[in-house]
Amino acid sequence: MTKKDFRSNCRKALNVLETIRKKFPLGISDVSEISDESRALIQVKIQQFRECVKGEGRLLSKYSWWNPMRLSRNKTAHTKKDLSDKEFSGLCDTLFQNIQKISDDLCKIIGIHRHHSKKKRKFENFAPSSAFGTEADRKQLIDAMEDLASPVEPTDIKIEFPQNDYAKLAEKTFSDILDHDDIKDYIQSHEGVSENIQTDILEWLQLTKETLDKEDPFLDESIFIEQHKKWSAIDVATDLTNENSKIQYHYRRLPSVSESKRGAIAPSNLNFNFYKNQFAEQKKEPKKDDKDKAPIQWKSLEQLEVLRRNFIGDMEECFIDRKNKWEQERIDEMRKTFLEELYKKIQNFKRLEKLLSPFIKNFGRLWDLSEGFFETSGFEILEQFAKLLEQDQSLQELAEILGKQNRAQSIFEKELRDKVVIKTEWHPQNAYRGEIKGICFSNDISSILPSELALMKNPATKKLFQLRFAQKQLLSFEYQRNVERTRKESTQEEVSIEKKEPKGPIIICVDTSGSMHGTPENIAKTVTFALSKIALEEERKCYLISFSTGIETLDMRDFKKGDSLQKLVRFLQMSFNGGTDASPALQHAIKMLQSNDYKNADVLMISDFVMANLPRNLIDAIEVEKEKNTDFYSLVIGTSGNQGTIDCFNHNWSYNTNDIHASRHLVEQLHSIKMRPTSQGLSDNADK
After folding, report:
1. Cα–Cα distance for residue pair 200/339, rounded to 1 Å
2. In this predicted model, what pLDDT tens digit does every residue of 158-174 receive, in sequence order?
């Protein structure tokens, strides 16, 4: 049971209790008055509660309500008949006496429980409450998403999403993703992918909130409404009954209302003419003498206030409707973009997982790469070589055979093993008759058959009985008197145990000089890429040395570091140019052979071997390493190599670039070599 499941289970248990409290807010005072349906509901809910927390006994058993609730559940679960009123009353008493305490304790547990994910924990603690509610709401949102992705038992109880707009948006978005069966199956089989999708959704929700706040075109309109809420009814009436209404003038020039500025925002349907007429009807007609000088008189101040409230209310309602519509349209646009990017990211992840899983053990890192790696890190070059391997099965087989070549051999060691032999012995017990085993001849009176005893009773056959008795030829029951006993005898014997050395590390030296340009370059890069994958899949250390006039190195053990994959990409992307000097590469390889990590490595050089002879001291160093059982392999691409340099290697293979079936021929050659029982046979065939 994980910590995540613990919080989800507590929340589901809390949901069960809330259902009971809503149904019976005052508890049950008289069980005889409730229906059979209600009785069944309570018993089912008690069982569901126990089902939610049954795996958490170690953590919850310290609470006072644990044992009473556990016993109540057992009573309802194990009985095959209906509970009596007395038993059911005791059940209800236990439930309703503890229900408040249980709810409080579960809420406290959920509140103090820290999520294991840093990103989710950050959301719980710091996401804006104006959009996502309280911290409890934010935790509930995360728990609901996790339950939607991978429900914990009991699965028939769902964790509800909080009642706020962004939580509903999260539910809709995640549900749409899970509606794709292939994605749902993939998510459920890849917990890391599910976790990353959830955190991506949470980050997108926060980004959406920030974007809406930043782009909000209704800010001026909101301020305008708040300012005019403070106007008195007389001020509003006086302004709107004026031919040059300032309210109307400034309102229609707001960015969210103006025809020239509002863009895609819905037009305002606030009816100024209606309210102008309504306010005008509230005017009193002035006397003729005071028509120009007297202030405006109103029929009813109460009616003016009603009109003012209605006017401001309509203005605010119009504002809210238009803003909600704009936000919904903007959210739909961003949601569509987000889902498109997410689906693309999932597909990219699948491709990356297939191609790069040997290189990257941390799939969280792989998920991060699936977003930007395709555009910035040269994924296409990796995919290119992967496709080349798929298309040319011989080349793939070649790389696999090369990857399996090492000096691993069967070693037979003698060991002493304990050998236990169990022997069965039979020990007679004369005083013990035992089971009847069969019929035999004897003179044992107690065992003879009744038919034989009859001979003795008959005077005519009595002498015959006496004769058989003397000869021990009376038919008698044969009894099993022996007792079976086993005895162990321990000895030691010498046996030969076959032990295989683990496949050793690989040091690959790749010629990147100008003479390798073209087909040799593709062969070298493809084989290097394939060998790198094979080595990492088999958890073998692999060290890459590229050389022309200088060298560059890459230790494949460092793929957990962020830049190592990019280094491999850069190698596969590089253009081969410059002169050829293999000496620095081989000198560095020998240096690595003398280190602890690569002392058991074999060396493979991939080159056209269009180069000068190796220095004498380097050849001597290679011979020294050969004496330590280090194998030096060469893959000669082309037919123009320096034979003197090639002869320094004890296993040599050639790849004729002018032969369209070169990779197949090389594979066949390697297969024939592989069948040789000794490394001498390997060397003899390889050099041919």
Report:
1. 10
2. 899 999 999 999 999 99
The region, left, alpha or beta by phi > 0 then psi within -120 to 50, assigned to residue 124 is: alpha
Question: Which whole-number Å values give the CA distances from 80 to 47, 86, 91, 440, 585, in the listed order?
Answer: 14, 17, 16, 61, 81
d(CA 652, CA 630): 14
For 377-381, which contacts have Cβ atoms below 8 Å and span 24 or more sequence positions? Answer: 377/565, 377/566, 377/569, 378/566, 378/569, 378/570, 378/572, 378/573, 379/348, 379/351, 379/352, 379/569, 381/569, 381/572, 381/573
Strands 632-637 and 602-607: parallel
213: Cα within 13 Å, side-chain hemisphere = 9
CA 208 to CA 216: how far, in whole Å? Answer: 12
The dihedral through the CA atoms of 553, 559, 565, 569 has a sign that is positive
Please state whether the predicted TM-score (pTM) of the whole model is above 0.70. Answer: no
Mean pLDDT of 529-555: 81
Distances (CA, A) of 107 to 121, 127, 164: 17, 20, 20
> Do the beta carbons of residue 598 and residue 543 sit within 8 Å?
yes
Higher pLDDT, 666 or 203: 203
Q: Identify which of 101-105, 148-152, 202-206, 430-434 has the greatest average pLDDT.
A: 202-206
Residue spans per domain, the chain: 3-112, 118-215, 219-333, 410-498, 506-686
88 confidence band (pLDDT: 50, 70, 90): confident
Among 140-154, 480-494, 596-610, the range scoring the smallest mean pLDDT is 480-494
Give which of 373, 481, 486 is closest to 435, Cα–Cα. Answer: 481
CATH number of 506-686: 3.40.50.410
CA distances to 419, 421, 490 from 493, in Å: 7, 12, 10
Question: Bridge-partner residues for 499, per DSSP?
Answer: 411
Cα 472 to Cα 447: distance, rounded to the nearest angstrom: 12
- For residues 653 and 669, the answer to whether their CB atoms sit within 8 Å is yes
Q: What percent of the chain has pLDDT over 70?
A: 78
Structure tokens at 647: 């002869």
Instruction: Say if residue 518 is exposed, middle or buried (CB neighbours under 10 Å; 0-12, 13-18, 19+).
Output: exposed
Inform me whether the pLDDT recorded for 280 exceeds 60.
yes
Residue 5: predicted pLDDT: 78
CA distances from 129 to 61, 167, 200, 209, 333 (A): 34, 12, 19, 11, 24
Q: Which amino acid is at 483?
A: V
**DSSP letters of 181-194?**
HHHHHHHHH-HHHH
As given in the structure block, the two tokens for residue 286 are 């002035």
